[in-house]
């Protein structure tokens, strides 16, 4: 690229940074007020046709669309934007992603990504070793997130079964498992998963044992969850691993949320047993402060990745591979692929394991503190039980005083009012109360490295006022 093009990028980057700073102040809250209709008017009124006959020029287009984007964003950098596993991206990761975009390596062949493929190999080796410190030959591949990781895990289990003459795989998971697990089975043409009820929020090993004893037709893949999306709860991985091993089944752990606890010496024991899993999904765009996408699928035995093997003349010809060019196509179900490992590498090197552990521990502590604040709030009630990683579920006492349906409707209405007023993004989760009844809860997922539990205390008063 000509040097003057780098200068163009520098100027345009300044435009973006200027708009980000100004827009965040002007928005004055975690999301735009007014709901979908108002935001649509605001964006289209500001921007006009996105495909004009004659372009308006880079700087003007970038300025006006960035302004619309920042004014209209649900901004995960805001303390009261806690609805989802939606994190603020670290500046170091964003800057690294700029370099990746500018050079645009594509991870489907070495001749499009010479250094990026080395960096990716280093990143997956480090993460595979983090997840599987005792395994002989662990490996990992980069994915677009845990949806793809879960799909590829089911695919690898199926291919492993096929290699020994099997025709299908039966997925067994808890009702706490992520929806992408059932979708993976559907996409791969496999039978519907056997779903085990989880009244406590986590998968009970005895129930899994029962399901495994009742199924003899096909090889089984059991999916455990380390950090449920709704409640942040972690299945008892060690006990599950024993049950699954006794039945010769495949164990996949969906640690999309909980995986980064492994960075922390203090917290990694919460994932004890994860190393016994055949495969593990691990996201860094949730509890790892990366821009989307930053997914990882780790496997205990690199040999199972043979299930992804695929050959095409122009990307991984046999003679090129024999001459030493690495086979990148066989490491993904995608072809063109962003170098997402690059920002992960820069972040891990910048912060180190200790730095990442500090961020993870901060969020876990902030959630514990927030849970205490909910517990002492006269008009709020927390879902009984331990805090799940950094997720706190609660509902207004006023909702408990109504019938079940009316109570849930009140919770749902309060959440939408906060959105409509641009005051806060809270999530919603339908999970069991201590009486066994499934109820609707407000969900706060604390992922911001600078937000404390106290920062969210006034939000409880606001929720209580809206609940009346
Ligand atoms: C978010 C999530 C997923 C899906 O991951 P994506 O990165 O959004 O594809 C899967 N499993 C769990 C437990 C999750 O929380």
UniProtKB/TrEMBL annotation:
Its cofactor is pyridoxal 5'-phosphate. The keyword Thylakoid does not apply. The keyword Transferase applies. Keywords: Aminotransferase, Decarboxylase, Lyase, Pyridoxal phosphate, Transferase. GO terms for molecular function: transaminase activity. Belongs to the group II decarboxylase family. This is Aminotransferase class V-fold PLP-dependent enzyme.
